[in-house]
Amino acid sequence: MPKKNITPGVLVVGLGNDFRSDDGVGLFVARQVEKENLNNVKVIVGVSDGTSLLDSWENKDHAILIDSVNSAEYSGFLYKFDGLSDNIPEDYFLAYSSHSFSIPRTINLGKALGQLPKMITIYGIEGKSYLPGDAINSAVKETAVKLISNIVEELKIGGEIIHA
Amino acid sequence: MKNKTIKVDYLARVEGEGGLFIKIKNDKIVESRFNIFEPPRFFEGFLKKRKFTEAPDITARICGICPVAYQMSSTHAMEQICGVKVDGPLRDLRRLLYCGEWIESHALHIFMLHAPDFLGYEDAIKMAGDYPEIVKKALQLKKIGNDLMIKLGGREIHPINVRVGGFYKVPEKKELEEFIAPLKWALATSLEAVDLVATFDFPDLERDYEFVSLRHPDEYPLCEGNIVSNKGIDIPNDKFLDFFEEYQVSHSTSLHSKVKKRGEYLVGPMARFHNNFDKLPPSARKAAKKVGLGKSCINPFKSIIVRALELVFACEEALKIIKRYEPPEKPFVECLPKEGIGHGCTEAPRGMLYHRYKIDHDGIIKEARIIPPTSQNQKSIESDLQKFVEKNLHLSDKNITWHCEQTIRNYDPCISCSCHFLKLKINRE
Predict the structure, then answer these.
(1) Rg (Cα) of chain A, in Å, rounded?
(2) Which residues of chain A lie closer than 8 angstroms to B181, CB-CB?
(3) What average pLDDT does the segment B178-198 reach?
(4) What ipTM describes this predicted complex?
(5) Which end of chain A lies in a sparser environment, N or C, as judged by fewer CB atoms within 10 Å?
(6) Do residues A78 and A147 make contact, with C-beta atoms less than 8 angstroms apart?
(7) Measured in whole angstroms, how far is the alpha carbon of residue B355 from the centre of its chain?
(8) Among B126, B135, B182, beta carbon nearest to A2
(9) What are B16-55's pLDDT values in tens digits?
């Protein structure tokens, strides 16, 4: 098989769609983390298909995924999942097509193939609106800003990210 | 089994939302329906009043898995109006981009959507547990196709580098030469895939299809050629609507299609294979012979073998193009609009995709007509279902339902593409 470039460290992935209002929050968080230019941290802003993550996160120490969720919680509520041990609710993190893989399915595929990082943390921020538009709701953004600060702080000192 | 209803509300492992319904009365099939209930998407409506140059970008959004097909059909239609022929390296780059799409789409369907049926798994994730190396190879094949699309199209979903007349930017030769090693690996893997899928157990189902596809005098068709069938059709693409027509059915939000005065037909890999076997590269023809396929395939379950052979073709074609490529002087041919009607017919991974546009002298779109392959295949799917169930009434409910779903998945349907149209009439009293 063609050779892959694999480096250890942390991978931060923002998921979502900038043109669907609060679905852009994952991308917003990733962009802000990227601006910090942290050592040993690779940032991906947006993926078209979950399976592309399998190569990106292989052998990484930690993959941090951020996306919006659509559950029954209040806007701005922050979910945190351990991607390797928690049961990730599939209906919170949907794929947009049967030809692409959602986060939960990608993780399950990674488990089956033995292609996983040592740790996966998934943050889901409850959105208010997913209508066409590029504005993020203020409550959603407030949570996002706190999360960015926590992620950056912990990555700087090399610790585990705590709940915002 | 005297009276029975087989119903699947939501089909798995197909693109978009569809279901199936079969009614059996006194051991006879009285109804077989491929239900499409995905909402119409109105593309033909909102293309009106847009500039002709926007058609590739707008129509690409019809599909995330075959956007290049929409871009190619729309650009060719607009260039026909403008009286422009794109040739040489730009024509080659279009074929190369299309090869990328065929590789990623066929690899995904063969291994992740279709193979689980034959190997007895609910989905590819469960299959990956027992066949990790096959799934890893499938994902790598898909990545190579995606990477080609990113190189030539700017990104793999809804490429942004395609324009009427060619491209906005073209690669240097050395950028394409980086793909030679991965494509050689992909070619070898595709040949292995042919051998692998040919070992599957195939239900016994053969029908007398009217296979419709493009045919080109010099090559396996992607973007150009006459529209031909194995029952005598051989026409230029501007005669499409003289021979084919769409009609509405109550159980589908997608229009059905038929050959006028005749009936259903089939587009896609089996049609291309039958109509263009002689144009496949020697490696693909040899591989077909090795697995006993011959020059035609009329068992829809064996379409998985044909798709694997088309993977071989796409890899060979990509390597051939890269070898002879020299960058053109300009990335596009200038296309000045004039009033007129243009037709574009190209081969999406799932089959022939027809576009027709009417534009005015300022290049504003006045009319748009798009007929995707999955729309065209609906009636054939229903007939396959009918024939399969008739022959297999003795199977258990679970088994027959599984095979019926598989029958639909044989076509790799893209339901979201097919629901692009709705005529709306308002009566105000």
Answers:
(1) 15
(2) 2
(3) 98
(4) 0.82
(5) N
(6) yes
(7) 14
(8) B182
(9) 667 777 788 887 778 877 777 667 778 999 899 999 999 9
pLDDT exceeds cutoff 90 at B188? yes
- Domain positions in chain A: 10-157
Helices B132-153 and B180-197: crossing angle, nearest 10°? 140
CA angle A36, A42, A46 (to 5 degrees): 95
Q: d(Cα A103, Cα A94) in Å, to the nearest integer?
A: 8
pLDDT digits (tens, 9 = 90+) for B271-290: 999 999 999 999 999 999 99
Residue numbers in A near B11 (CB within 8 A) = none
Rg (alpha carbons) of chain B, rounded to whole number: 21
pLDDT in tens, B144-184: 999 999 999 999 889 999 999 999 999 999 999 999 999 99
Q: Is A75 on the interface with B (CB under 8 A)?
A: no
Residues in chain A: 164
CA atoms of B287 and B188, how far apart (whole Å): 11
Which residue intervals of B246-357 are DSSP H helices?
A: 269-276, 282-290, 303-324
Give, rounded to a whole angstrom, the gap between the first and last alpha carbons of chain B.
51
Inform me whether the C-beta atom of residue A159 falls under 8 Å from chain B C-beta atoms. no
Output the CA torsion sign for B391, B393, B399, B405: positive
Angstrom CA distances, B228 to B263, B266, B315, stand at 15, 12, 25
